[in-house]
Design brief:
The protein is mostly helical and about 375 residues long. The protein is about 70% helix and about 0% strand. The protein is built from 16 helices and no strands. Helix 1 runs parallel beside helix 13 and helix 3 packs antiparallel against helix 5.
Length: about 375
């Protein structure tokens, strides 16, 4: 059994971002009637992703830290880091190259902030990312992976304490910079949105301890809070950068409630996400990475063909969405899955799972609730 509800949430988060970018400021969609309803809430999918990432990576890191006494610190850190590298970079580099080629034909507006190519290529301080617009989040993911790898090496027996030191520094710097308007790099090194990884870790600790109460209230409050948070952020000039603590309050905390509620539902065997969402969750990284690139390219084709203002905008939006989703799914099957298997076998000795590992055994899933709520053993889920 997988974390099936987590995979479903990944799909929902990816589709939220997907929809918001479809109606952002791409020429055919700038005045579409759906834009005011979708764009304000869609970016919150990123916050759900970050909470999920904190939950999963902490569990994976604990497993790696537990292997230190067996394989040594170097090997444990190497395997953890290499899995993350294989998970992120090969597909990102392909998308980066394709985006660079497309931009020869479809140049970006002069207002886009351009960063050095090397920083973007290796996702080092790559915010914003004018090549692969959605990939600014990968910069923060890679940052989190690097800190986690360092914590495995330095504090294998006290992994959470090691990570907590980093989160405390980030939180303190963010608060001081916000309150006193200090010139601290809140868009990257001390971005408050990084604390959403900590929220995911806290959820991991709760789930590991067998806590699954108040799942319904958690989900309901989380969804309502996120919707009202979107209204508040819209009131503060719309798309508030990740450097604002306000985003953590409006979207980070409700995202954590939603993730906890979904996991608790699965722990209790109460409700499991539909298989179509689980499948889209497996493919969510490819969908997330490619969609904005495809939207820009397809919109440019519409302009070139003279369809804008002539063909119904909803039809154009549907066509753009189908192409964006189709390319993401094609990438998942033809690029992402084969590359993980091939590179995993070469660098680690086994393929890197797409998703996987039991949350609990089949016997446990069918057991009475009292037994299912006993503390779970470390998961074999890998990201």
């Amino acid at each position: 059994m997988n974390y099936r509800n987590i995979q479903g949430l990944r799909a929902i988060a990816a589709l939220m971002v997907f929809a918001s970018h479809l109606f952002w400021d791409i020429i055919p969609m700038r005045t579409h009637w759906a834009k005011p309803y979708i764009v304000p809430i869609g970016p919150a999918g990123v916050d759900i992703f970050f909470v999920i990432s904190g939950f999963i990576i902490y569990n994976v890191a604990k497993r790696s830290a537990a292997q230190v006494d067996v394989v040594g610190r170097g090997r444990a850190v190497y395997e953890f880091a290499m899995k993350r590298i294989i998970r992120i970079y090969p597909l990102y580099w392909i998308a980066f190259g394709v985006a660079a080629l497309i931009m020869i034909w479809v140049p970006l507006p002069a207002s886009f902030v351009k960063k050095p190519q090397l920083e973007l290529f290796f996702l080092i301080d790559g915010i914003p990312n004018f090549r692969v617009q959605a990939a600014w989040t990968l910069t923060l993911e890679v940052y989190f992976y690097a800190v986690t790898a360092l914590s495995i090496f330095l504090f294998p027996k006290k992994l959470f304490a090691g990570l907590l030191i980093w989160f405390a520094v980030v939180g303190l710097a963010a608060m001081l910079a916000t309150v006193f308007d200090l010139p601290i790099p809140l868009d990257y090194a001390f971005a408050p949105i990084l604390l959403e990884f900590l929220l995911g870790i806290v959820i991991g600790l709760l789930i590991e301890s067998g806590h699954s109460r108040f799942y319904a209230a958690s989900l309901c409050i989380g969804v309502i809070w996120m919707l009202f948070g979107a209204v508040e952020l819209l009131h503060h000039a719309g798309r508030v950068p990740q450097s604002y603590l306000l985003r953590l309050v409006c979207w980070g905390f409700p995202a954590a409630l939603i993730v906890y509620g979904a996991l608790a539902l699965e722990m209790r065997n109460t409700w499991i996400m539909p298989k179509i969402l689980q499948y889209l969750g497996d493919a969510s990284f490819s969908i997330y990475l490619w969609h904005a690139i495809m939207f820009n390219a397809v919109a440019a084709v519409f302009v070139h063909l003279g369809w804008v203002g002539v063909v119904d905008r909803t039809l154009l939006a549907t066509l753009m969405g189908v192409i964006g989703l189709g390319v993401g799914l094609l990438s998942y099957h033809s690029l992402e899955k084969p590359s993980r298997k091939l590179l995993g076998e070469y660098f680690i000795g086994r393929g890197v799972p797409m998703a996987g590992g039991p949350l609990w055994s089949n016997d446990r899933a069918n057991a009475p609730v009292a037994q299912r709520l006993e503390p779970l053993q470390p998961s074999s889920y890998d990201r």
